[in-house]
Amino acid sequence: GKRAQTDSQTSDTDDLSTSDRRSFSECCVCKKSISGMIVQALGKNWHPHHFTCFKCKEPISGSKFNLHDGNPYCENDFAQLYLKKCFGCGLPIRDVVIMAMGQSWHTEHFVCCACGTKLAHQAYYEREGNPFCTNCYEDKFCPRCTLCNKPIIDTAVMALGNCWHQECFKCNNCDEVISDTAFELYKDKAVCLDCAKILKKLKIETTPF
C-alpha cells in the first residue's frame, strides 16, 4: 500500500454589486441611461436584464457570479462547464476540492473505504485503488506480532516461522530483546547468545539458529 497526503483547492468567484440609483448611468450593453436599479460588475454598469450568463443568456442574480476568460457565468453553467467533478459522486465541486489518488473529491466523499472516516487533510493509504485510513490499513494488511498481536508498522523480525516487533522478540530465558541476528533455541524457544553460553555451562543443550 502507498501512504499519501491529500491536497485541497478552492474555486474563485467575483462580486456583483446592485444599487438603486437616482442619478443616471450608461449601460455598457445598450448604451442607454440606467435609472433605478443598476448592476455594477467587471468595472462597468449594466441594466439588470443585460448582465447575463455567457452560456444560458439568463440574467445573473445574487451577490456573486463566476468569471471565465473575462465572461460572466451563472453558478450552474459555470459549475457544469469548468468546475472539477467529484470522483465519488460525479457532481461539480463548488467549494473545496480534495486532490487525492489522481482524482478530485468533495471533502465528504473522500473517505476510508472500510470505516467511512473522512480522509481530507490527513495521511491515508492507497491499496488496489481504494483509500484506507491508517487504523484500517494497519488492521487489515500489516502482519501481526506473534507476542503482542498488534500490527507491525515498521521493521519486522522474521524468526521461527513468525513475525515479531523488534522490541517483542525476546530471549525466553532472560526476557531481554534479542538484538543480534544470531540466537539459539532452547525447548523450541529463542534464547540470546549470552544465555545460550550459560545454559551450555550447565550442560543444557541448545540449538544454534
TrEMBL record:
Residues 25-83, 84-143, 144-202 form the LIM zinc-binding domain. Its main location: other. Residues 1-11 have a biased composition (Low complexity). It comes from the Eukaryota. The keyword Signal does not apply. SMART domains: LIM. InterPro entries: PDZ-LIM_domain, Znf_LIM. Keywords: Cell junction, Cytoplasm, LIM domain, Metal-binding, Repeat, Zinc. One of its GO terms (biological process) is heart development. The keyword Electron transport does not apply. It is found in: Cell junction; Cytoplasm, Myofibril, Sarcomere, M line. Residues 1-20 are annotated as: Disordered. One of its GO terms (cellular component) is filamentous actin. GO terms for molecular function: actin binding; metal ion binding; muscle alpha-actinin binding. This is Putative transforming growth factor beta-1-induced transcript 1 protein. It comes from Panstrongylus lignarius. The lineage of its organism: Eukaryota, Metazoa, Ecdysozoa, Arthropoda, Hexapoda.
